[in-house]
Amino acid sequence: MDVKLKDRVITTFKLNGLTLKPDAVQLVIHALSSVPTFEHESNLERLIDAVNKLEPSIPILDRDIVEKAVRECNCVAEEDLDSVFNVIDIFKIPRFVYHQDRKKFVLPTELGANSRIETHLFPDVDAKIEAIIEKYTIIKQILNRSAELNSSNRKSQIKPIEFLLGSSSLSDPSCHGNREVTLLGMITRGRSGKPCLEDPTGTVDIDLIGSTVGLGLFTDNSFVVARGVYRDTVFKVSELTMPPIETSEITRYNFGNLNFFGGNSKVSLKTSAKLREMEDEFSEAMIIILSDVWLDDDTVLSRLNSMFSGFSECPPIAFILCGAFTSREYGAEHGDRLRECFINLHTILSKYPNLISTSRFIFIPSQRDGGLSKLYPRPPLLQSITRDFQSRVPHAIFATNPARIQYCTHEIIVFREDLTSKCLRNCMMTPRENIGTVPSHLCHTLLSQSHLLPLSHAVAPIHWSFNHSLSLYPLPDLLITADRYNSFTIDTHNVKCVNPGSFPCNNFSFKVYYPSSRTVEDSEIPSIL
């Protein structure tokens, strides 16, 4: 028997207020022997959760109750086979909140009466405050674990803003005026128009003149790590950087198999051995990604026909088609025109029955594709527009924007928004060209913010109750930012960041993603002579 594993099992259960009898210990060790060592901790957490759901009458566990818990965990694992490919309703993903005392993510129901539990499209103002604080809390707990911060011995210097406001430097500049302090806060503009930094404890004016900035787009309402000195009621910033980025592997090591991503599974499918085997088995499986699929443009339809023809003999898993689905707006007739556009698309697809029966067609709406509001997340296109098309193409899925897609162990987030231009227009500091390209600045910003919209509500309004649906925590495997900016592929922190670019404006180019090898290929449909 592995003595270290035995000690780990006993200790883990004791830390959760449970004691195992010797035969129960042997059963747990036998159950863990079939999984990789790095998955032991997450599987122990799942087992303990299953035990707690059984509500044992005493905290001393015998073999029978542990055996029931193991069977429950195995049943959850068998559900994996039904979860090869899923498009997840963004309005139904779970909302987890970081518990400061327990150092773990929990559902709002575990936080007590003061936390908002239900989500509404028209919440009160408290929902906005909670949303901002939750974004801050996620970044703060990442920052506290940051290896970079710990190695530079700056962790002890991170202070809340109230520390500055309550310091004696207000009356005696010589007291703290030359002492460097590190702050984490949201950079924005105060009522006077001057830049300031906010956190849950207060607000302080900042002076950015002469400061050094790191990689990223420091947009209004983004969270930053600012280093400097506090003098004469102003925080003089010497260095401004984005918060550290935490990989998905580190997140799951710390918080186990929580299913942040959403879907029917009770636990994250990232660790499913069966799905990973299927993923490796279908090594040639691919996902096609396009943006600005103008279905009212004859040239676009012609190129789509060529593309479908090329893939008809080897159908992809899915085609991800992002809006806008028309080249311009049609006013009151826009809905009718969209309906006609999808009928035109079906006319082309009907030539390729192999694609219709095999591939999934996922449609992500843009701001130009109608809807009752401009807030994110956006619902799918109206059924009155899509009903005829769906009846003829049964594997058509009209998704939300953003959309979450799970394929085997892969987590994919798709967001159709012109983020690059919006972020550049709303930068508080000019990005440094010598340390990165515009796409690398953008991707670093999104991943470090752990959020799809690091912008003010005036620029990118959101449903505050569904702020968690825009979260990038934990980081996905593939992040698709469907943007009119030039196409790019950036691999950073184990995330593939992809922008297919505008299909009609970028020489009819698109991206092909191979999940098995985690590679992205650039493709283009040549002109028809």
Explain what you see.
32% of the residues lie in helices and 21% in strands. With 529 residues, it is an alpha/beta fold. The strands form five sheets. The chain has a six-stranded mixed sheet, covered by helices on one side. The protein has a six-stranded mixed sheet with strand order 16-15-14-13-22-23. A five-stranded mixed beta barrel has the order 7-8-9-12-11. α2 (22-32) runs parallel beside α4. The N and C termini lie far apart (71 Å).
User: Which strand-content bin applies to the residues?
Assistant: 15-25%
Strand order within the widest beta sheet = 3-17-18-19-21-20
The count of β-strands is 23
Helix content: 25-40%
Structural class: alpha/beta
Main beta sheet strand tally, sense and closure: 6 strands, mixed
Approximate shape: globular
**Which blocks of ≥5 consecutive residues have pLDDT under 50?**
none
Oligomer: single chain
Distance between the termini: 71 Å
Radius of gyration based on Cα positions? 25 Å
Number of helices: 16
Report mean pLDDT, rounded to a whole number. 89
Topology summary:
Layout: H1 3-15, E1 19-20, H2 22-32, H3 40-53, E2 60-61, H4 63-78, E3 85-88, E4 97-99, E5 104-106, H5 125-145, H6 147-151, E6 158-159, H7 161-165, H8 173-176, E7 181-189, E8 195-199, E9 202-207, E10 212-213, E11 222-231, E12 234-241, H9 248-255, H10 273-281, E13 287-290, H11 298-311, E14 318-322, H12 334-349, H13 353-358, E15 360-364, H14 383-392, E16 396-398, E17 403-407, E18 410-416, H15 419-425, H16 438-449, E19 478-482, E20 488-492, E21 495-499, E22 509-514, E23 519-524
Parallel strand pairs: 1-2, 6-7, 9-12, 10-12, 13-14, 14-15, 15-16, 18-19, 19-21
Antiparallel strand pairs: 3-17, 4-5, 7-8, 7-11, 8-9, 11-12, 13-22, 17-18, 20-21, 22-23
Helix pairs in contact: 1-2, 2-4, 3-4, 11-12, 12-14
